[in-house]
Specification:
Distance between the termini: 33 Å
Low-confidence stretches: none
């Protein structure tokens, strides 16, 4: 179970500001409070990484920029429609960043990169990119065809569970593939 948590933690950290925003907006219906809380979480996460001397990856910078810029515009306009479209812009931008073949490298321990082909890992990266682009399109559809309450429910119950489901699917595949690779290598060495 600790391997699962270690694997899931970076993903949870990257999406924490969105989770906080969606949960607060669903609970309070207060756009400014929700956006401000999401922005504060994102800024605090980057500051904490810098204090710890860790490298800030492209995905983290993109997420911060999107949260701050789009969050500021949401607060300035106080327009729920803009706030509802904002996740589509963020998801599309993140999906585009995920089209970079090696974006997953920061999330993977050496045991994975040593035992699974770069081609397979790149394919998983593309699966993630297409999920994010699909969620961006679905969010636009919901934002323009339903009210803010329905959108908040969608935001809370669809994107995060979809990402968690894909994460678990990928985790199980990687775990099985690593085990298979190690067993095959041990069999060759034994022979």
């Amino acid at each position: 179970m600790t391997h699962l948590f270690k694997a899931f933690r970076p993903l949870l950290e990257d999406f924490l500001s969105l989770i906080v925003f969606a949960a607060l907006y669903a609970l309070t219906d207060n756009l400014i409070l929700s956006v401000a809380a999401g922005m504060a979480i994102s800024i605090a996460q980057i500051a904490w990484e810098r204090i710890r001397g860790r490298k800030i990856e492209a995905m983290q910078w993109a997420s911060l920029a999107l949260v701050v810029v789009l969050g500021s515009i949401s607060i300035a306009t106080n327009d729920p429609v803009f706030a509802m479209i904002k996740p589509s812009v963020a998801q599309a931008a993140i999906g585009i960043v995920m089209l970079k073949p090696d974006w997953m490298a920061r999330y993977l321990p050496p045991i994975v990169t040593d035992n699974i082909s770069p081609r397979a890992l790149t394919a998983w990266g593309y699966v993630w990119a297409f999920l994010m682009l699909g969620l961006a399109a679905a969010n636009v559809f919901v934002a323009f065809n339903f009210d803010a309450k329905a959108w908040a429910a969608y935001t809370f119950f669809v994107p995060l569970p979809a990402k968690v489901a894909l994460f678990f699917l990928q985790y199980l595949w990687i775990r099985a593939s690593v085990r298979r690779s190690i067993r095959a290598r041990m069999a060759v060495q034994a022979a």
